[in-house]
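hiii, so i know i said id send this last week but things got crazy w the move. better late than never?? heres the sequnce for the chain we talked about at the cafe, plus the structure i predicted for it. fair warning i was half asleep when i ran it
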Amino acid sequence: LVNLGNDVTLFPIAPKSGLHTSETDRNYQDCSQTVKHFDPKAPTLRIFHQFSMGESIGTGARYGLTFFELDVLSEREVNHLNSLEHLFVTSQWAKEVVDKYCTVKCSVIHLGVDKSIFGFREKRRKNKNFTLINCGKWEVRKGHVELIEAFKRVRQKKSNVELHMVPTNHFLNQKQTKEWLDLYNVDGVKI
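okay and structure toks below
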């Protein structure tokens, strides 16, 4: 938005994290500084969870971009989503869930990949191993129990299969983290 010439005010929900370049850092700083003199009648876009869309800044039109993983919405979630002028979701599945429960106008915005940052380069494999990668915090609802059971069955038949896990979950205590690590203490798994 900044690069398109728009005045943008940023009200961070959480501390800055993620991919940083000098341009993103400069834009972040510029947008954060405008908090001192933002237009309270300007439209707002809240990018956050579905249970927190009712919270807003100013009195302008309110838009939301949300994400969720279940196909049932609670009364609170429905109320928060319906409080918006327009809601954006990232898949047709999510739009169907919203349309089933809510009256808010909803559109799909498909997420993309910036190929200048995440470029593809073809590379010849040096070994014949088949590597599976799972990125997602340890959670039963994300299928991590089923994943390791399936991997063990495949590994019995194919020894050249590896599973690389990127499973950080800062909400687990040490005991819970150890339980997951013990479950995934399997030949061919790298954490």
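btw The chain has five helices and seven strands. thought thatd interest u
miss u guys!!
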